[in-house]
Amino acid sequence: MQACGAPSVINYLITPASLGVQFHGESLDGARFAMQTSASAFTEMEAVANGVGIAELPCCLADEHPQIERVWPNERPTMRTVWLVTHPDLRRAAKIREVSNAIADEFERNATVLRSGRLRKR
After folding, report:
1. What's the whole-number average pLDDT of the chain?
2. What are the residues facing 12 on neighbouring strands?
3. Residue in 67, 34, 71, 57 with CA at minimum distance from that of residue 117
4. Residue 18: which residues within 8 A CB-CB, separation 6 or more?
5. Distance CA 56, CA 117 (A)
6. CA distances from 70 to 49, 60, 63, 105 (A)
7. 35: part of which helix (H) or strand (E)?
8. For the chain, counts of helices (H) and of strands (E)
9. What is d(CA 114, CA 110) in angstroms, rounded to the nearest whole number?
10. Phi and psi torsions of 54, nearest 5°
11. How do residues 64-106 score in pLDDT, each as one tens digit?
């Protein structure tokens, strides 16, 4: 990260409107984008860990990375919708339903961590 001034931003090339407000509503006007990607959150997470800039990442992933810390540790994370999708012709297939149910069950079991992450004590 830069030694002085505002940090560089790492963001998606195209941010879907369905994500809603990003960066806790902070304005990105005039922000310097160090990296814009169409790749995954894992790509952004590695860029953050390597000092490229700041990014909005899922707490359930980033909190586990020893080189990443939250910018706003006292703020509740922004909630995002997660979709589980399948082709309409397959959704009633027993194996697809079994896997879909297992995924949904894991989301339910891990709801607290998925919503808030695991904030490390400093």
Report:
1. 82
2. 37
3. 57
4. 81
5. 13
6. 12, 12, 8, 28
7. strand 33-37
8. 4, 2
9. 6
10. -110, 155
11. 899 999 888 888 888 878 888 999 999 889 999 999 999 999 9
Round to whole Å and give the CA distance between 9 and 33.
Answer: 5
What is the token pair recorded at 27?
A: 């304005």
In Å, what is the CA distance from 76 to each residue of 22, 23, 52, 53, 110?
13, 12, 24, 21, 17
Cβ-based neighbour number of residue 56 at 10 Å: 21
| 57 Cβ contact partners less than 8 Å away, ≥ 6 residues apart | 41, 44, 45, 48, 68
- Distance in angstroms (rounded) separating the CA atoms of residues 74 and 89: 45
Q: Report the candidate in 45, 65, 43, 41 with the shortest Cα–Cα distance to residue 117.
A: 65
Structural contact between residues 24 and 72, judged by C-beta atoms closer than 8 angstroms: yes
The reported pTM is 0.69
* Spatial distance between the Cα atoms of 48 and 42, rounded to a whole number of angstroms: 10
Report which residue type is found at 24: H
Q: Where are the domains of the chain?
A: 9-116
